[in-house]
Amino acid sequence: MKENKQLLDSIISGIHEKKGKNITTIDLRGIPGVICDYFVICEGNSPSQVSAVAESVEHVVKTNIQESPIRVQGQQLAEWVGIDYGDIIVHVFIPELRSFFNIDNLWSDAKIVNIPNLD
After folding, report:
1. Which of 87, 58, 88, 60 is nearest to 75 (CA)?
2. Which residues contact residue 31 at a Cβ distance below 8 angstroms, ignoring those fewer than 6 apart?
3. Mind listing the pLDDT tens digit for each residue in 57-87?
4. What does DSSP say about strands 80-84 and 88-93: parallel, antiparallel, or unpaired?
5. Which residues fall within 8 angstroms of residue 28, CB to CB, at 6 or more apart?
6. Going by DSSP bridges, is the β-strand pair 38-43/88-93 parallel, antiparallel, or unpaired?
């Protein structure tokens, strides 16, 4: 569990470093059939910011806790980048796609925490 806390903190630091906004963590532990323990969802204002946030998350996590993602998807269009760390999956969206997919509200029984923006 300690590793998840360190990974979560590093992911959030990476998002903050590139001014990612509207960060939400969704604690999925204890919910049957889920594929991971946490979702971390955030957004960038443009595809270039989405890409920068995703790269920052990878860099900060690698620097802080020497972990690399299992896979990263979506960097070509950079409208939605998914970063899979196994127990934690990070979603970096442009705002329009985030509202379209609305994954923030898929699990009504999950514990949701909104992280304040750094501005």
Report:
1. 58
2. 107, 109, 110
3. 999 999 999 999 999 999 999 999 999 999 9
4. antiparallel
5. 34, 36, 37, 38, 39, 107, 110
6. parallel
